[in-house]
Amino acid sequence: MTYAGAPSDPSSGKLVLFPGQLPSTNYGGTGNISAFTGWNIPGKHFKSGDGWWVLACKDICQLSPATMSVKQSKHPDYDGPPIPSQLMKWSPMPFQIDDEKRYHIERTREPSDPFLLAMLKPIGSLADNLHFSPGPVTTWWHQGMEKGPKSNKDFSDTTIEIGQGKQAHLLQRLVTLPKKPDESEAQKQLIIELQIDGTRQSLGEFVFHMGITERINPRSFLMWIGDIDGDGKVDLLINPTAYFWNTSMYLSSLAKNGQLVGNAGNFYFSPPDSPGC
Fold first, then answer.
1. E-strand spans in 38-166?
2. How far does Cα 180 stand from its chain's mean position?
3. For residues 81, 17, 169 and 162, what is the CA-based torsion angle, rounded to 10 degrees?
4. What is the pTM of this model?
5. Listed residues 136, 168, 186: the one ending a domain
6. Residue pLDDT, tens place only, 236-252
7. Is CB count within 10 Å lower at the N or C end of the chain?
């Protein structure tokens, strides 16, 4: 993403999506916890307003209605002066996640601490057809849990119990690409697939950084699996990249024929103050 002109909108799809967890640096968290202070995004893409929902977990996961406020701000830039940006905050936040006195960067995360997963807002036709309800959300696993999900030794198959004796499998398939003339060896891709009751669907490629491609701990890409749209089927929140913030939400209610889930929304943000390596 370049910032020479107008910055790109980081959100795309049928719902506007922001990941919740803010790393303490551009390259990932340190295991510490900090109060949620909002997102600072270059550009002028968003407006204050209602219709937002916050997905967060503590003893349970829950959806909470929220309002987003937007203020003009500046974002640091690696190669030049600060860039015009927008500072976005949501309120009220569940579990007092935005309480700076309670949660601060110096304190190590504890299992009992709340875990902020996402802020989302259905738009267009999805806003008319998808009706979220405040309160507990069926959750089979989320990234804030100390243990799991259960995988085999090489991470090629991750199993999540989804109730009623059923299981969801997240499969990691390494694909060798045709070797190009200028390459010393053939490149590989890691494809993530969802399988339930014999139906298998690709969720696309997991994009690595610096040319590394291998099967990975599913905690690196699976953020949450549960039922957020209330149809009793699997929905997913995943991070399909090892670099910066890249989050996608899949809903079973958007699945087409032969699919398990359909893409609802995506978020991609490459901070302009990062050196890019």
1. 39-42, 49-57, 61-75, 83-91, 115-122, 135-136, 138-142, 150-151, 157-161
2. 33
3. 140
4. 0.90
5. 136
6. 999 988 666 789 999 99
7. C
